[in-house]
Each structure stands twice: as structure tokens, then as C-alpha cells.
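Severity: low
Component: inverse-folding endpoint
Summary: output formatting inconsistent between runs
Steps to reproduce: submit the following C-alpha cells with default settings.
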């Protein structure tokens, strides 16, 4: 009875996990304290800042940056969960892995000592973009397929971006998965029903590709003084943080809050980079004048919404091959007014 309920909200890059959590927070019982542990793969956090902008006394957001919590950042995840359990003692813990994260090792960590006696794993929820699922490269991605196979609740999101053939393929694929899902459904704007959180998890669900991330080595910690110095961007001198892992290359930038972006110009640059096969994911937070926006671009399709965050502008790009990030920075700076 004293165990902390835990849900994993999983799914590929840009499928709507953070949006789903934001929707759940609007319906969170006011007398419950929740903690969200969010994993940004890149060195520059964006998702956790989007969630933190909605935080209050009954909600805390804990971030794991610059690696995947299922492999290279597993030690940091372990320490964060230990602190959440012993210091915060929330009524619910939501874990949002990076879209490239494998849920198996997260579940294994929660199911073994010392956490097994402290937490109760409830429904693992996976969001799917049917337009991705029917593509050949995703059907050969072990991590992607295990996100689906380990889910207790499997949801088609962003169905406005797919055709009926892709949606039919989702239904057929989902129905054939074994053990059967508790819930298979279609949602709009990642609107997860709160009651789905309370469903139990089925421990008989097995990963088909459990070793997908075992080749990743734990990252080295960065000295605190170095981290602090890297968090002060100046006008015309953004902080650039490249990294790599899981077969991908990423680079994040932090810009001075005094700099104002032309979002249309930036979007044109991002879409061009996608069409030229240089990047496959972009997200950021940008000041565009008096207003600030969260920006997302997945499969060349951009979206924006306003955000309360005001500390600095940020951009993260993910690519499948190494890019001359320093040269690209020049093009990004041209999008500043």
C-alpha cells in the first residue's frame, strides 16, 4: 500500500510523449504530488523545461540530460529514482524516456532491488505515429518494436498525418501482438485518459531485442564548475553542445534571452535540412518577441505552441550522420533578428 505507482510513457522521437504528460497534468488530482523524470537525449534539455513551466508545489520535474536512461545514463537514472523515492515520496512517478530509449532495462531496474519493494509498476503506455510504423526502417528497428511490444496501452497518435492504409496497418499490427494489450486506441493530440494510468502492467510481456543498447557505455560526468560556466550564453555567442550515441548524432544550442528569432525563417532552415537528409528531428524553445514558443519538427512536419519558459532560447537537432555543427550554427544565427 505504501509503494509509489510508476508509469512509463514511451514512444519514438516526436510522437507526442511530452504533450501527453502535459494533458495528464491538467487532470492530476489536486491533492496528489507527482514527479516526472524526463530524459532528453541531447546535452541541451528542452522537454523537461516545457514540463517545468507547468510545475508547482504538487509537481516536480527531474531531468536526465545528455544520454539515454536505459544505457549510457542509467547510473544517473538510478540515483534520481533513489532520491525521488527517499526524499520526495510522490503519489505518482511518470518516466518519459528519450524516443530512442529501450523500456526493457528501465522496467528491469524498477523490478529489482532496491526499487522492487518501493515502487509499483502500473501501465506502460506507448504512443505510435502510424505513418512511421508502416515504414520499412521502423519495422527493422529493435528498440522501436520493443517499445510497442512492452506496452500495456498502445495508442495511435498524430493520425491526422497518416492515411487510412497506415492506420489500418496499425490496428492489424497492434491486434497481433502477444500478450494482448489492455488498451489499443486512437487519440487526438496525445490525450491519454487518466484512468489508463491505473491499469496494471503485464510482466509476461517480453522484449524481443533486449540487447539493443548494451553496446552503449556510461558517459563521464562533467565537473560542476564546467557545467555552470556552460550555462551562460551571450548575445552572438551561443553555447554549442554536440554529442553522439545510439547510432545518432545530436547538437544543442543555448542562446541569450535577448536574442529574438524569426520562427518562419528558422522553420524553413529546419525543413530544408530534413529534406536534404541531414537531420530527422528538431525541437526547441524560442523567443520571437514578447512571445516564446516550443518548436517541434518531426519527419519534416513542424508544430508550435506557446510556453511560459523565459530563461533562454534553445535548439536541438538529431541526425543519423555527423554534421559540421559549427558551420550550421552560422545559418542558425541568420534566423535571429
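Observed output (run 2 of 3):
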Amino acid at each position: 500500500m505504501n509503494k509509489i505507482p510508476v508509469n512509463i510513457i514511451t514512444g519514438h522521437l516526436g510522437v507526442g510523449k511530452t504533450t501527453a504528460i502535459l494533458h495528464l497534468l491538467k487532470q492530476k488530482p489536486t491533492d496528489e504530488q507527482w514527479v516526472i523524470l524526463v530524459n532528453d537525449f541531447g546535452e541541451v534539455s528542452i522537454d523537461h523545461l516545457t514540463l517545468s513551466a507547468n510545475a508547482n508545489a504538487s509537481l516536480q520535474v527531474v531531468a536526465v540530460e545528455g544520454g539515454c536512461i536505459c544505457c549510457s545514463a542509467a547510473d544517473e537514472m538510478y540515483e534520481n529514482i533513489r532520491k525521488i523515492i527517499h526524499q520526495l515520496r510522490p503519489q505518482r512517478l511518470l518516466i518519459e524516456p528519450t524516443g530512442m530509449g529501450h523500456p526493457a532495462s528501465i522496467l528491469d531496474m524498477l523490478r529489482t532491488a532496491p526499487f522492487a519493494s518501493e515502487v509499483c509498476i502500473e501501465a506502460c503506455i506507448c504512443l505510435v505515429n502510424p505513418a512511421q510504423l508502416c515504414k520499412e526502417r521502423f519495422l527493422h528497428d529493435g528498440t522501436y518494436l520493443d517499445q510497442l511490444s512492452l506496452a500495456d496501452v498502445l495508442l495511435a497518435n498524430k493520425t491526422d498525418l497518416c492515411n487510412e492504409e497506415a492506420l489500418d496497418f496499425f490496428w492489424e499490427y497492434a491486434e497481433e501482438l502477444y500478450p494482448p494489450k489492455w488498451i489499443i486506441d486512437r487519440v487526438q493530440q496525445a490525450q491519454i485518459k487518466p484512468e489508463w494510468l491505473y491499469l496494471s502492467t503485464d510482466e509476461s510481456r517480453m522484449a524481443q531485442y533486449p540487447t539493443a543498447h548494451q553496446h552503449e557505455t556510461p558517459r563521464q560526468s562533467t565537473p560542476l564548475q564546467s557545467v555552470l560556466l556552460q550555462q551562460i550564453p551571450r548575445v552572438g555567442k551561443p553555447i554549442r553542445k554536440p554529442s553522439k550515441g545510439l547510432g545518432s548524432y545530436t547538437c544543442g544550442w543555448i542562446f541569450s534571452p535577448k536574442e529574438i528569432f524569426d520562427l518562419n525563417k528558422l522553420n524553413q532552415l529546419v525543413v530544408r535540412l530534413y529534406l536534404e537528409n541531414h537531420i530527422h528531428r528538431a525541437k526547441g524553445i524560442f523567443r520571437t518577441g514578447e512571445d516564446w514558443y516550443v518548436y517541434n519538427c518531426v519527419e519534416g512536419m513542424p508544430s508550435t505552441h506557446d510556453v511560459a519558459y523565459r530563461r533562454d532560447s534553445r535548439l536541438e537537432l538529431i541526425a543519423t550522420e555527423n554534421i559540421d555543427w559549427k558551420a550550421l550554427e552560422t545559418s542558425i544565427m541568420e534566423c535571429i533578428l
